[in-house]
Amino acid sequence: MAEFVEADNAEAIIARIETKSRKIESLLKQYKHVEALKTALEGSPPKTRDERCKSANWIVVHRALMAIKDIDGMLNALDAEYYDILMKYLYRGLSTGDRPTCDQCLKIHEKLTERAGLGCILRCLTDTINTV
Predict the structure, then answer these.
(1) So what's the pLDDT on residue 114?
(2) Nearest to 132 by CA among 77, 79, 95, 81
(3) Predicted pLDDT of residue 8
(4) What is the pTM of this model?
(5) How many domains does the chain divide into?
């Protein structure tokens, strides 16, 4: 069984997410959208059951996702190691029901599936341990 972060460490995780958020905002202001997305996806806290941590990180990833205009360019610049975690966040975005978020997530989902294949979807949906 995977080790999960204890709730008392949640504050430390949230502090790291806040620092990451400031870095992402800076990158977005410099029009470095792909770098912002990479930064958002790095160190995602999937091994915590604390919803505060997951929600805080979703907000950061969401901000970076919504800034992406050139999806093909983003996928060309994104290393394959990010594909599975990106797919998980796309499904989280779709679950919000927010129209602009869902539209963006569906556009990226289509292109990511073309690039990464159906295995990416299957890994995302079957991994119930590392959720975002």
Answers:
(1) 97
(2) 95
(3) 61
(4) 0.90
(5) 1
| Cα(68)–Cα(118) distance, integer angstroms | 23
Average pLDDT, the chain: 91
- Percent of the chain topping pLDDT 70: 92
Output the six-digit token pair for 113. 């599936």
Give yes or no for a contact between 41 and 89, defined as CB atoms under 8 angstroms apart. Answer: yes
Banded pLDDT at 11 (limits 50, 70, 90): confident
Is the torsion defined by CA of 38, 107, 124, 25 positive or negative?
positive
Alpha helices in 1-132 (DSSP H): 10-29, 33-41, 51-67, 71-77, 83-95, 99-116, 118-126
Tell me the C-alpha distance between 131 and 114, whole Å.
23
User: Which residues form the domain of 43?
Assistant: 10-126
Q: Among 129, 119, 81, 124, which residue's Cα sits nearest to residue 105?
A: 124
Q: Are 46 and 7 in contact (CB under 8 A)?
A: no
CATH for 60: 1.25.40.190
